[in-house]
Structures
1.
Amino acid sequence: MRFFTAGESHGKGIFAFVDGFPAGLKVDNDYINKLLFLRQGGYGRGGRQKIEKDQIDILSGIRKGITTGAPILIAVWNKDFREVKESFVPRPGHSDLAGALKYGIKDTRFISERASARETVGRVAVGALCELLLKEFQIELISFVTEIGGIRARIPEITDYSDFSRIIENSELYTPDSEAEAKMKEMIDAARRKKDTLGGVFEVRVKGVPPGLGSHTQWDKKLDGRIAQAVMSIQAIKGVEIGIGFEAARRFGSEVHDEIIIEDGKIKRASNRAGGTEGGMTNGNEIVVRAAMKPISTLYNPLRSVNLESLNQEPALVDRSDICAVPAASIVGRAAVAIEVTRAMIEKFGGDSLSEMLENYKNYIKRCENIQEWIK
Ligand code: EPS
């Protein structure tokens, strides 16, 4: 399975094109629209989200609500479709200057219209479609905000994803710690008053993943690497870690690796510091991914920049923007991980139809459970 997005922030719409998606999946449009709705939300968002009401329009690949195996084309039409005013003063931190140099264009709108995080509408639509497929294999995902502007949330033990999702969706910052949330909101208000922006950290988890997705045999088949690339490619993401991530570098090996134990005749792990991947493959444990988002680069109190026409020192472009978009990014991160896990599932279990995949999956799980017979 592969996918691409197209579309500009103030163009006609955002489009997602998915090729190689298995046939036979019943598509719940409401589920996809719900994730698009969550992507639009979160305390600290700017004025644009009051204009848009992101909903999918399926243009191909789905008949009578069921995937046909043909390419799927999804459109989300922009309500704020308009010709944006040209701009010659790049924002530090945005794609403006690097893109202007690369493409030899002074009007940075030629760059920023496509670089805009509005593109993530397409990724969330594809991610939600992938989640519907993963549900058929009892694979579930959640994401939540763990940190904003240096304020950290306490994360409880998460057993039931549905219960936890309800807590997250009732929080304006998609975080489970209401005390921390209140402080985060104060920080966002302070940033708004200072005409500044704030970043943070979010976490994505995946439960019910079978062992053996991805492969140790080649660099570009390693699932941890693929997940890192998918998440790092989200606008404004500057760091990605899996499991205990950077913390592993500060501990002894005995405090990092997850012991292998036998319980009721089943092989289990005593902990999950690896975050569900070893050797570039899933090990059957929960996948845990965290990502660091930098503050949005459009500042109402702009940093110094240079006018690309006059070469005069000028304040950077000031435009409508978000103060904090970490909750929205957590939904995009969830989509990015769902897409990579789905691609790996299709690779492992054959992707023409859902029924064929399910048969192969059940057979493989049975073999894994009967480990002495399976591993010879
Ligand atoms: C976004 C819509 C955009 C931006 C944001 C993402 O709306 P507008 O530019 O019309 O205000 O708020 O884009 C960026 C963060 C960016 O870097 O360009 C959205 O729908 O997510």
2.
Amino acid sequence: MNEKQLVGEKAAEFVKEGMVVGLGTGSTVFYTLKKLGQLVKEGLSIKGIPTSKQTEKLAEEFGIPLINFREIDSIDIAIDGADEVDPKMNLIKGGGGALLREKIIAHAAKKFIVVADPSKAVNRLGQFPLPVEIIPFGFEMTIKHISSQGLSPKLRQKNGTKFITDNGNYIADCVLPKELDLKIAEQLLNMIPGVAENGLFLGMADTVVTLDKDKNILLKERS
Ligand code: 5RP
């Protein structure tokens, strides 16, 4: 079993009967979705809220019943991947471009579980470019404002054209300067009109499901 599968499947064990489950996006949580689909077939009753169109499609394929925000008051648990995880369990997310929906769902969840193989662990966030979702109106100006904060944004491209998120927005992949405090970076970005959301998930993860050096499951809990 590959590392993503090991952590992805383990996270499905946190899901209990009757729960409303935030369903993350990416190649690690893919295995969680697959496992949940199997458990549903075996009788588990849950409702999922997907963080992307891609995940919505997968959930339907795997037979996970979906629910929407109108029908619920809260989300019991959200399970999602990460691009980087620091020792305090702060995250960079959005490599797949789903960060806005992912943050809405993680924020609404009573428990936020992150599935991350050991390659995602870093001492300091920022080796992976920080994805920032920006709205198309005036995006050239928004990019200049991000740039003036020293974050060197680069508009994400896909197949030679601008990458478009599920929300119809663009992604600016940014450089996090080493000397910049993460909280300050988050505040600076949130203050720029045109920024819809940033991929810093600070203090949000409750549990990180990862592996130790012998490939045994390691659960890290927020202290
Ligand atoms: C998508 C994300 C993903 O969770 C993140 O990119 C990790 O993906 P993977 O599990 O494929 O490495 O934030 O927006």
3.
Amino acid sequence: MSRTVVITGAARGIGLAIAGKLVDEGWTVAGCDVLAEELQSLAETLGDRFRPFVLDVTDEDSVTETARRIEEETGQVFALVNNAGITRDGLIMRMSMADWDSVLAVNLTGAFMMCRAFSRGMLRHKEGSIVNISSVVALLGAAGQANYASTKAGLLGLTRALAREFAGRNIRVNAIAPGFIETDMTRELPEAVRNDYEDRVPMKRMGAPADIAEAVSFLLSDASTYITGVVLPVDGGLTT
Ligand code: NAD
């Protein structure tokens, strides 16, 4: 029987690559995003095993309601991938409270609320796997990203805390720290910044969304049943 995985930020970029890979592997994917039209067209291209759910992860009531609908539609939810994320970059002197709060709300509080909503069913079934998409900036820091780096480091704390909290119930919680990955988020960067990034990567190139999808697939699979609480960098050697 097909296992169900919930993915946030599934409409494009890394989330879309994860969704496509897991559909190909036979999972039922509940793809959550604020981008309703993109989700709808994905449902047409990815087929029946991709179920679109319009969800803003910052809205507590809709997280609760969407969790209820997903469980009603697909049954037991085995896995959760917290991938939705935004940036509002700026040096701290110019970083507004709105820039700080909005990044915290999506990247960290959103992931917390999703973990809380879906762990209820996982605890009941005594099985599950959660993957949080952090970033190398959680490990290295980044000038101009005080808000974003704080959320990505916070995700590592959330990952380790829940790994310990859930280990006895056969629920694993891990994080992936992507390096520079070719998506809309990084395409917005000036060319000079991108070139500088590429130069700093020992493998001298950016990664592809598929590189992250492969790592997620491994951490959700039965090939990793004794792995919990880890942070897996997928970064071409950047953090070595
Ligand atoms: P992206 O901007 O292409 O995609 C992010 C997705 O999240 C979008 O579909 C967006 O609509 C969705 N989203 C945003 N706010 C949301 C909300 N409130 N509720 C639900 N969905 C929401 O970005 P990406 O590059 O694919 O990044 C995906 C994840 O990987 C993010 O968490 C990002 O921080 C992380 N990451 C990316 C890189 C990179 O180089 N691209 C590196 C490290 C980590």
